Amino acid sequence: MSASLVILNANIITLNPKQPKATAVAIHKSRIVAVGSNAEVRKHIAKSTKIVDANHETVVPGLVDCHVHMTEFGFFLQTPDLRNTQSIKEMQQKLREHASKTRGKGWIQGGRWDQEKFAEKRYPTRWDLDAAVSDRPVFLVRVCGHIGVANTQALRLAGITKETVVEGGKIDLDEATGQPCGIIRGNAMRLIWKVVPQPSSEVLEEACVLTCKKAVEAGLTGVHWLVETTDEIRAIKKLDSEGKLPIRVYLGVPLRLMDRLANLGLSTGAVDSMVRMGFVKLFADGSLGSRTAALKEPYSDEPKSTGLLLHSKKKLCQLVLEAHKAGFQVGVHAIGDRGIENVLDAYEEALKRFPMEDHRHRIEHCSVLNPQLIRRMKKLCLIASVQPHFVVSDPWIVDRVGRKRARWVYPFKTLVKKGVVVASGSDCPIEDISPLLGIWAAVAKRSPDESLTVKEALGSYTLNAAYASFDEDKKGTIEVGKLADFTVLSDDLFNIEPDVINKVVVEMTVVNGKVVYAREDSF
Ligand SMILES: [Zn+2]
User: Fold this and answer.
1) What separation in Å is there between the alpha carbon of 46 and the centre of ligand 1?
2) Level-2 CATH architecture, domain 80-195
């Protein structure tokens, strides 16, 4: 069969055990039609074939991010970025600059601040924000996404006072005055979201286009896109129908939107379309950074607290059962061991009452584990949806949970050894979107007893990612008949020092047989 695209002179890592290496690949439309030597693949060249000389660069199966807040990332790209801010003073400066650039535009949001990095070593307050911007509402979330700081205008618009009480959330009060100090935790942040005007469809589409561009530049061919609203789903579908969606999308949809999915024309089954319904998502707890992840024993650096469960166990069981019974794949955010245990109980009960083969339910993050929890995950056939780069970003982990528990935070290797399917992602915009940084972290940045091999780490972004979206027969390896999704890299991950994997550059990204990104000056 004549090919539409042929790549020659490549170092192809197929991840297909029957043919692990190849030098050339031929594609017809969206499918791979030949994998082998240059000579074998040249047979598929016709007049209309586009030929790419890969110049011995490395080709791997398309990398997929299994947990990414794409729309939020798109918005973050247009808001003040406080990730590397070293002090509250610097935060104020950046806020002032952003406010003057976006004069008259209403709410200022964004953030990703981290008080651990601040010279002042404390949380910012409403008064800190007021000193920078007082004439517009401001709400800036912490890097974890589970805590935010609001200025006085934002608090007023949200109707937050010292009397406000929210289940699963907290309004911090100033010790001296007894007034809300601006820090808002967990579910209480919803009071703010409720009064923030929804972005127009143009703004939403712009954010989606921007975020997809960043994703393919990072070498991603697919994303498990966590959405918050039906408007986002509509925007993604619209881009797809206009041929403007460069990347495959598997949706992670909040439970509260479950009933509305039928109207959006989405089903879990349609394998070949670019946008598919994926899993129904809900939360069990918060994050370690903000000490809102639910632990069995108190935080080592805050002995009065064991974190926050967002639902009672009974309620969580009910919610999981609801999604499971409706036939959806379920993904529950759980970080602390108490949160994870509740999720395991909920899955166990749902599966006991309504047994289902091949459900592929997932736990998102599953950070603080122990051997018993891992055994239960395996027994229930759950997928561990992990974000390897957290091990780089969370150097304070031993402070939070102590040495003994820290041993079992992100035990990548034990999960793999015990037979749990590990699928990787970024949790961007909390982390950088680059899958190479994730592979680097899993291979080189976790202690040796829990780090992954390059093959395992790469597998967690390819084969296992495909398994997590029910399409291991269509994706995850480079072999004849599979979808033509791959990533071209500047170096062979298997033949460089693990320490420098973070320096590897994405040369080209191919989705559905089309080049959706090529680095300038390459090819
Ligand atoms: Zn997330």
Assistant:
1) 45
2) Roll (3.10)
Cα 425 to ligand 1 centre (Å) = 9
The backbone region for 49, taken as left when phi is positive above 0, alpha when psi lies in -120 to 50, beta otherwise, is beta
Between the CA of 487 and the centroid of ligand 1 the distance, in Å, is 24
Amino acid at position 461, single letter: Y
**Ligand 1 centroid from CA 518, angstroms:** 28
Q: What is the pTM of this model?
A: 0.86
Q: Ligand 1 center to residue 235 CA distance, Å?
A: 20
Rounded to the nearest angstrom, the distance between the alpha carbon of 59 and the centre of ligand 1 is 29
Q: Where are the domains of the chain?
A: 1-62+476-523, 80-195
Task: Give the count of alpha carbons within 13 A of 44, CB side only.
Answer: 25
Express each pLDDT in 67-102 by its tens digit. 999 999 998 888 888 988 999 999 999 999 999 988
Among 294, 275, 148, which residue's Cα sits nearest to residue 223?
275
Could you please state the CATH topology (level 3) that the domain comprising 1-62+476-523 is classified under. Urease, subunit C; domain 1 (2.30.40)
Alpha carbon of 206 to ligand 1 centroid (Å)? 21
Give 347-364 pLDDT, tens digit per residue: 999 999 999 999 999 999
The two beta strands, 24-28 and 5-8, are antiparallel
